[in-house]
Amino acid sequence: MGSSPKRPRSQRPRLPESSSSQKAAKYAWNGGLTGTSKQAGNLPVVEVCTTDGCGAPSSGPAPRAAMVQVHGAGSDAAAHWYCHGRCAAIAAARADLRTGGHRQAGRS
Ligand SMILES: [Zn+2]
Questions:
Q1: Is 7 within a domain?
Q2: CA 83 to ligand 1 center in whole angstroms
Q3: Residues 46-94: tens digit of each pLDDT
Q4: Ligand 1 center from residue 24 Cα (angstroms)
Q5: Is 62 part of any domain?
Q6: What is the whole-number distance in angstroms between the Cα of residue 68 and the centre of ligand 1?
Q7: What is the three-state SS of 38-93?
Q8: Counted domains in the chain
Q9: Is residue 30 in some structural domain?
Q10: Please, what is the Cα angle at 102 between 83 and 88, to 5 degrees?
Q11: How confident is the model at residue 1 (pLDDT cuts 50, 70, 90)?
Protein backbone atom coordinates (compact mmCIF):
# COMPACT_ATOMS: atom_id res chain seq x y z
CA MET A 1 0.00 0.00 0.00
CA GLY A 2 1.26 3.42 -0.92
CA SER A 3 4.03 2.18 -3.18
CA SER A 4 3.03 3.28 -6.63
CA PRO A 5 5.35 1.89 -9.28
CA LYS A 6 7.49 4.56 -10.95
CA ARG A 7 6.60 5.07 -14.54
CA PRO A 8 9.43 5.43 -16.99
CA ARG A 9 10.07 8.91 -18.26
CA SER A 10 8.59 8.21 -21.66
CA GLN A 11 5.23 7.38 -20.16
CA ARG A 12 4.95 10.51 -18.09
CA PRO A 13 2.29 12.84 -19.40
CA ARG A 14 3.42 15.70 -21.55
CA LEU A 15 1.61 18.91 -22.24
CA PRO A 16 0.83 19.08 -25.92
CA GLU A 17 1.95 22.17 -27.79
CA SER A 18 -1.31 22.55 -29.56
CA SER A 19 -2.39 26.12 -29.08
CA SER A 20 -1.68 28.64 -31.79
CA SER A 21 0.28 30.90 -29.46
CA GLN A 22 2.51 27.99 -28.44
CA LYS A 23 3.16 27.20 -32.06
CA ALA A 24 3.89 30.84 -32.79
CA ALA A 25 6.33 31.01 -29.89
CA LYS A 26 8.12 27.87 -31.09
CA TYR A 27 8.27 29.26 -34.61
CA ALA A 28 9.81 32.50 -33.34
CA TRP A 29 12.28 30.61 -31.14
CA ASN A 30 13.51 28.59 -34.13
CA GLY A 31 13.96 31.72 -36.17
CA GLY A 32 11.21 30.77 -38.58
CA LEU A 33 12.70 27.34 -39.28
CA THR A 34 10.44 24.32 -39.30
CA GLY A 35 10.94 20.62 -39.71
CA THR A 36 13.70 18.45 -38.27
CA SER A 37 17.05 19.94 -37.37
CA LYS A 38 20.43 18.88 -38.71
CA GLN A 39 22.29 16.00 -37.14
CA ALA A 40 24.71 17.70 -34.77
CA GLY A 41 27.16 14.81 -35.00
CA ASN A 42 27.83 15.46 -38.64
CA LEU A 43 28.67 19.12 -38.25
CA PRO A 44 32.29 20.21 -37.88
CA VAL A 45 33.09 21.95 -34.62
CA VAL A 46 34.92 24.67 -36.49
CA GLU A 47 34.02 25.65 -40.01
CA VAL A 48 36.94 24.89 -42.29
CA CYS A 49 38.58 27.99 -43.73
CA THR A 50 38.72 28.01 -47.50
CA THR A 51 41.29 30.79 -47.85
CA ASP A 52 44.21 29.83 -50.03
CA GLY A 53 47.32 29.15 -47.98
CA CYS A 54 45.57 29.12 -44.63
CA GLY A 55 47.08 26.32 -42.56
CA ALA A 56 50.04 25.88 -44.87
CA PRO A 57 53.38 24.97 -43.29
CA SER A 58 55.46 28.08 -42.80
CA SER A 59 58.63 26.80 -44.38
CA GLY A 60 58.48 29.57 -46.94
CA PRO A 61 57.20 33.14 -47.08
CA ALA A 62 53.65 33.99 -46.14
CA PRO A 63 51.19 32.98 -48.87
CA ARG A 64 49.29 36.20 -48.27
CA ALA A 65 50.23 39.50 -46.78
CA ALA A 66 47.72 39.43 -43.94
CA MET A 67 48.74 36.02 -42.62
CA VAL A 68 50.40 35.35 -39.31
CA GLN A 69 52.65 32.51 -38.25
CA VAL A 70 51.38 30.29 -35.43
CA HIS A 71 53.73 27.83 -33.78
CA GLY A 72 52.61 24.35 -32.90
CA ALA A 73 52.31 22.74 -29.52
CA GLY A 74 55.90 21.60 -28.97
CA SER A 75 59.14 23.47 -29.42
CA ASP A 76 59.91 21.24 -32.39
CA ALA A 77 56.39 21.40 -33.82
CA ALA A 78 56.04 22.97 -37.21
CA ALA A 79 54.63 26.45 -37.54
CA HIS A 80 51.89 27.26 -39.98
CA TRP A 81 50.45 30.29 -41.68
CA TYR A 82 46.94 31.35 -40.79
CA CYS A 83 44.65 34.22 -41.60
CA HIS A 84 45.07 37.07 -39.19
CA GLY A 85 42.36 36.98 -36.54
CA ARG A 86 39.98 34.06 -36.33
CA CYS A 87 42.06 31.32 -37.97
CA ALA A 88 45.20 32.28 -36.05
CA ALA A 89 43.25 32.36 -32.80
CA ILE A 90 41.80 28.91 -33.46
CA ALA A 91 45.24 27.50 -34.28
CA ALA A 92 46.72 29.01 -31.14
CA ALA A 93 43.86 27.62 -29.07
CA ARG A 94 44.43 24.16 -30.54
CA ALA A 95 48.10 24.34 -29.61
CA ASP A 96 47.10 25.44 -26.12
CA LEU A 97 44.76 22.48 -25.81
CA ARG A 98 47.58 20.06 -26.57
CA THR A 99 49.88 21.58 -24.01
CA GLY A 100 47.40 22.65 -21.38
CA GLY A 101 48.12 26.29 -22.08
CA HIS A 102 51.85 26.01 -21.42
CA ARG A 103 53.14 26.76 -24.85
CA GLN A 104 56.82 27.08 -25.59
CA ALA A 105 58.13 30.57 -26.04
CA GLY A 106 58.71 31.76 -29.55
CA ARG A 107 55.27 32.74 -30.71
CA SER A 108 55.50 35.71 -33.01
ZN1 LIG B 1 41.93 31.02 -42.56
A1: no
A2: 4
A3: 778 888 889 898 887 888 888 999 988 777 788 999 999 999 999 999 8
A4: 39
A5: yes
A6: 10
A7: CCHHHCCCCCCCCCCCCCCECCCCCCCCCEEEECCCCCCCCCEEEECCHHHHHHHH
A8: 1
A9: no
A10: 5
A11: low
